[in-house]
Amino acid sequence: MKLYQYLLLAALTVSTAACSNWIYRIDVPQGNFLDERDVKELRKGMSKDQVIYVLGHPVVEDSFNDDTWYYVYDMKRGMRKRGEDFQKQLILTFDNDSLVTATGDFDLSEDFETPLDQ
After folding, report:
1. Distance of alpha carbon 101 from alpha carbon 88, whole angstroms
2. Do the strands 86-94 and 68-76 form a parallel or antiparallel pair, or are they unpaired?
3. What residues does the Outer membrane protein assembly factor BamE domain cover (predicted)?
4. Parallel, antiparallel or unpaired: strands 28-31 and 60-61
5. 20 to each of 13, 15, 17, 81, how far by Cα in Å?
6. DSSP characters over 8-55
7. Using the 8-state DSSP alphabet, how is residue 66 labeled?
8. Beta carbons within 10 angstroms of residue 90's beta carbon
9. Contact of 89 with 63, CB cutoff 8 Å
10. Which among 69, 72, 65 is positioned nearest to 50, based on CA atoms?
11. Using CA of residue 106, residue 108, residue 109, residue 110, what is the dihedral sign?
């Protein structure tokens, strides 16, 4: 009788593991989703208010340095068939309320170095 219970438990465990792809799991996006078109609108010399108008508020502001902003977007996929997990970052550095550099996973516009007319 004991062997029958162990075999039944093993069969139940194997069948449950085989059905794991039937469970729907949602994707979990977190952070700022940035569109490539919006990032290409950035120009050197933009004020913080202008950057907020274009990209929105950053997810993370450096506690020790108010002049560094981090835009982070993290996507955790619920199911592998919808793609791999990924993360995109954009780090903006300001000097005296003026955008100086933008680094990260986005391509900047060719006109980034051309400041806006004030």
Report:
1. 17
2. antiparallel
3. 31-103
4. unpaired
5. 11, 9, 5, 13
6. HHHHHHHHHHHTGGGS----EEEE----HHHHTT--TT--HHHHHHHH
7. T
8. 22
9. no
10. 69
11. negative
Q: List the structure tokens of 26.
A: 């949602």
Quote the pTM value.
0.73
User: Given this model, what pLDDT does residue 94 score?
Assistant: 92
Per-residue pLDDT of the chain (118 residues), as tens digits, is: 688 787 888 777 777 665 666 777 788 888 888 888 988 989 998 999 999 999 999 888 778 888 899 999 898 888 777 888 888 999 999 999 899 999 988 888 888 888 776 5
